[in-house]
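Researcher: Please translate sequence to structure tokens.
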Amino acid sequence: MTGSMMHYSGWQLVKQGLAGNNGWKPAWRTPDLQRSYDAVVVGGGGHGLAAGYYLAKVHGLKRVAVIERGWIGGGNTGRNTTIVRSNYFFPESAAMYDFALRLYEGLSRELNYNIMLSQRGVLNIAHTEHDMELMCRSVNAMLLNGIDVELLDAKQVIGEVPLLNTSPDARYPIHGGFVQRRGGVARHDAVAWAYARGASDLGVDIIQNCEVKGWIKDGEHVVGVETTLGPISAGVCGMSVAGHSGVLAEMAGFRLPITSYALQAMVSEPLKPILDTVVMSTATGAYVSQSDKGELVFGAGLDMYPSYAQRGNLPVQQNIIAAMLEILPAFRRLKMLRQWAGVVDVCWDYSPIIGPSPAANLYMNCGWGTGGFKATPVGGWLLAHNMATGKHHELSEPFDLARFTSGRLVDEAAGAGIAH
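Model: Translation complete:
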């Protein structure tokens, strides 16, 4: 990846292009793999890159590596629908996701890289009286959690998005909803590239095309990784590999209470600006926003067949499109441009696992399900804290693996009514 375009004027871009891009510097280094590091983070997506950055920036570690089996941002970081928000039901979730949103709000300045954060708001719609009752409860809880949300009646929701289906015979009539104005979207690739460049500038080695084949152990302690590029010893290890968390956990000798599913999404052909907020439908699970290029970006629920495949299937695609068109029928004649899927690791309570693993000296950041992108900064921040200090941060403690034996689950699917 070449250097950020934010450093070049329009004329400079044309000049560089005509010159064959000669003189452009890589955005991050391509270092030789060392055989020993103070800390090794497995996973070169947004969370792993953020962890590498914060290990160096906040905790002062000098010899850090982030290793990725493919290319930077080639997993879920580049395969999501870019939504950021913090309107969660439980205090533990709200505190963590709002910390992520605050980090997002300052990220372009901190990393000197435009992540294209657009706080256009996230609107959740209620389609029944029951939905509305649950939304009132959720909004009260969120306000108590210190989250900026507003409860809206049906007229106010339609005022926010006049394109919504208001037909008398609509299958999903509009009863009301709530909005978080600070929510919105950010450019997923830019987030990964920004953290990669920031980490590299601090001396973090980013090693691509380096697949983990196993963990190196000294008794019960993980002391390194076996990779396709050879063994690497490490003072401490962390893993942030989204849908493949269960695979790496089994390599270390333990099992996680997670299942990996494909989450599908798609984009339409571009059109002029017509949708200036993110719309989410509680009853259908559909969510849609319009990109800066004019494409509609949308998706819905999980494909509930466990899978590691980064591709979709027709029945789920039909359900997603039907759900979107039921609430926004004006888009019926749009052509589809492309579709894809990301592999998400879903915990039993739809909340992440952050903290030490059953294998000593190996720390986890996994189980984010469909909420991984919005949590990128805080996921990296907390993994770095755990790896550097050996202790929980106050935000990560409720999400320790031990909650599945103590029964202190943080069930956001039940609390919020929608898991995205």
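Researcher: Any highlights?
Model: The first helix runs from residue 10 to 18.
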